[in-house]
């Protein structure tokens, strides 16, 4: 696993041993960031100088990719100790400590945000309806900027993660399905 593009292109990322963390593959991340950069609802403004939230961060691959491509800052939520160790090592190895904040806790119980995020990644364990729960917690805590792009990865067979939103893009890649929409 590595950073695909940008200032830290080619940098190797580590993942914790075992099956508790399921990092988004390089191929899926490449497809996702291609969509973000080239879709009519995306573009360079979707990434450059963005404040990013990487909920269920695991290795931090999504947030670190966004930073490498020009995002200004990323907040990472993670609960698993081994994943936190890998995340912190990846941030250090990528030399991104000054543009990150690691919150060692659940995205389902976030503290009040110091800055709303315009790009939100939610890549939870599959099959537990966690994206809707996370957004229900993050929104009143001030983490979601108006019109923020929300990117969620679910299992291939899962239904739309949040009802009553207009999906901008939906793509299936192997066992993963990506969903993108704008926050109200």
UniProtKB/TrEMBL annotation:
Entries under Gene3D superfamilies matching the protein: Vaccinia Virus protein VP39
Q: In terms of domain of life, where is this protein from?
A: Bacteria
MF terms (GO), sorted A to Z? 16S rRNA (guanine(966)-N(2))-methyltransferase activity
Q: Which UniProt keywords apply?
A: Methyltransferase, Transferase
Q: Which InterPro entries does the record associate with it?
A: RNA_MeTrfase_RsmD (IPR004398), SAM-dependent_MTases_sf (IPR029063)
Q: What is its EC number?
A: 2.1.1.171
Which top-level enzyme class is recorded in the Swiss-Prot or TrEMBL entry?
A: transferase
Return the SUPFAM superfamilies for the record. Answer: S-adenosyl-L-methionine-dependent methyltransferases
Q: What is this protein called?
A: 16S rRNA (Guanine(966)-N(2))-methyltransferase RsmD
């Amino acid at each position: 696993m590595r950073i695909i593009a940008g200032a830290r292109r080619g940098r190797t990322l580590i993942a914790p041993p075992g099956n508790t963390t399921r990092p988004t593959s390089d191929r899926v991340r490449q497809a996702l960031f291609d969509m973000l950069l080239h879709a009519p609802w995306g573009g360079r403004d979707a990434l450059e100088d963005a404040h990013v939230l990487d909920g269920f961060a695991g290795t931090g691959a999504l947030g670190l990719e966004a930073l490498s491509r020009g995002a200004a800052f990323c907040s990472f939520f993670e609960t698993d100790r081994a994943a936190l160790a890998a995340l912190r090592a990846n941030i250090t190895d990528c030399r991104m400590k000054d543009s990150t904040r690691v919150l060692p806790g659940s995205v389902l119980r976030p503290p009040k945000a110091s800055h709303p995020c315009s790009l939100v990644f939610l890549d939870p364990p599959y099959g537990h309806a966690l994206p809707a729960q996370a957004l229900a917690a993050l929104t009143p805590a001030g983490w979601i900027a108006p019109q923020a792009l929300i990117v969620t990865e679910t299992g291939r067979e899962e239904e739309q993660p949040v009802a009553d939103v207009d999906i901008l893009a939906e793509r299936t890649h192997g066992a993963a399905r990506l969903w993108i929409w704008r926050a109200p």
